[in-house]
Amino acid sequence: MRRLVYALPLLVLAVVGVFFFVGFDRDPKLIPSPMIDKPSPAFAVPGLRGGDGTVGNARFGGTVTLVNFFASWCVPCRIEHPLLMELARAGTVRIVGIDYKDKPEDALGWLRQLGDPYTVIGADRDGRAAIDWGVYGVPESYLVDRQGRIRFKQVGPITEDVWRTTMLPMIKELSQ
Amino acid sequence: MKRLMFVSALAALLAAGPAGAVMPDEILKDPVLEQRARGISKDLRCLVCQNQSIDDSDAPLARDLRVIVRERLTAGDSDMQVVGYLTERYGDYVLLKPPVKATTVALWTAPAAFLLLGLFTARTVLRRRPADAGPVPLSEAERLRLQEILSKGGQA
After folding, report:
1. Between the CA of residue B106 and those of A24, A158, B98, B102, B118, what are the distances in Å?
2. What's the topology of domain B18-97?
3. Which of A61, A147, B8, B106 would you call most buried, defined as having the most Cβ atoms within 10 angstroms of its Cβ?
4. Segments forming the whole domain that contains residue A43
């Protein structure tokens, strides 16, 4: 009994230590999305380019889609852009862009300058569609499966690492 | 009279309280709805700045969420429905006060558990300590030695 009492503080320290060890390793800026494995939220925004028409989740489904929220004023989006261009060239996945809180002329200028990887682009001028998706900053990207369900969310630029280890294998699996 | 004016001005200032980050154009005409909106917003986390409520934050997303809270209330939603609208999109993370559920049981019960543990430990330790019997009386040899020192000290 006496030994147990003496060992108790050490035990408590060990448990708290494990919590801290795991907790401090997590990025508090990454908020887990509750929308994973749920149908993509209903939304409809006007198209950005001439032929885009209305962009909404009615257009999803059939094939795996990467939904990418971006803006011309967003600096990390510039970092991500070359990867999206590469994907578009390889034709790995359909890329739907949602231009977040942006002036259409700015976005079009940005795409002219850096290249345009998107199959369709919607213009979310007031950011409401983004809120329906649970976006809290740009860039954010979602993988939507053939049934129109959200399967993965990437907060911040898609890195080479995330692409290779997580997203590409998932796209391959979902496409089968 | 002057004093009364001063006191009433001070009382008005204190009653007003901090206005948060709410902009005049966001405020609803209906004071009851506005009051509810303020109450809800104070418990919702700003996702950009993380440790501020959307009521306190100047971030553009916080403003958008404040406007949405007010729109939903005006449309006739209950407070629960408004909060539900946001947790559907951002998860429990938007709540500054985490809800009690299976995954948060440890979080909610830990403080009470630690207090009980502390009390239990304190009781065990205190019980085991021998009762305080006062100073130990001097032995016969010590008493004689003391007397000797004292009688010598008197002469010096």
Report:
1. 18, 34, 12, 8, 17
2. Helicase, Ruva Protein; domain 3 (1.10.8)
3. A61
4. 33-175
